[in-house]
Design goal:
0% strand, mainly alpha, elongated, binds zinc ion, 69% helix
């Protein structure tokens, strides 16, 4: 194997432990910001930005590797910096995804507080009583059909129905 590339790979292995500390610091920084309750939309934007940054960082790393192969050895500190940057970005991405996963279950009929499963149409959690997030448009459309079928059994306002239908026929 090319000596310069071997040296580069050795550098990568040597620096893996140091990079872990940097990554956890970065995750802590994102965690503090996330505590300010980012909306799902903002989180999605940040995830996209983070992925783009990671892709760019990998591209730079690949260019470094090729430059080393082509005869322009990479400076170890420069390489270390790039690797730490990727570690930090990946830690950020993990934190953002964890935040998103904590928020999306509400849409999937899961209690945002205790995480227990909620049934379609539930407004409050059956376990802890927390209010559940409003349903999305798609699921509420299905819910309307289901509740319309269920109504005759439990509808309290029987008297209003004949009035409404008779008004419909009046010109
Ligand atoms: Zn609950």
């Amino acid at each position: 194997m090319n000596d310069k590339i071997q040296e580069m790979l050795d550098t990568i292995q040597r620096t893996a432990v140091q990079a872990g500390d940097v990554a956890s610091d970065a995750a802590y920084g994102v965690g503090k910001k996330a505590a300010q309750l980012l909306s799902t939309a903002k989180l999605n934007i940040r995830v996209c930005e983070c992925k783009a940054d990671i892709a760019a960082a990998f591209r730079e790393l690949g260019e470094m590797l090729y430059a080393t192969h082509a005869g322009s050895p990479t400076d170890s500190d420069d390489l270390l910096h790039k690797l730490e940057n990727i570690d930090a970005l990946k830690a950020q991405l993990n934190t953002l995804n964890a935040q998103l996963n904590r928020q999306t279950p509400a849409d999937a009929h899961t209690c945002p507080i205790c995480g227990s499963a909620a049934k379609e149409g539930d407004q409050f959690c059956r376990e802890c009583g927390s209010p559940l997030a409003p349903k999305t448009e798609e699921t509420s459309a299905e819910g309307q059909t289901a509740s319309a079928e269920a109504q005759p059994q439990s509808a309290p306002a029987d008297e209003e129905q004949p009035t409404a239908t008779s008004e419909d026929f009046v010109d």
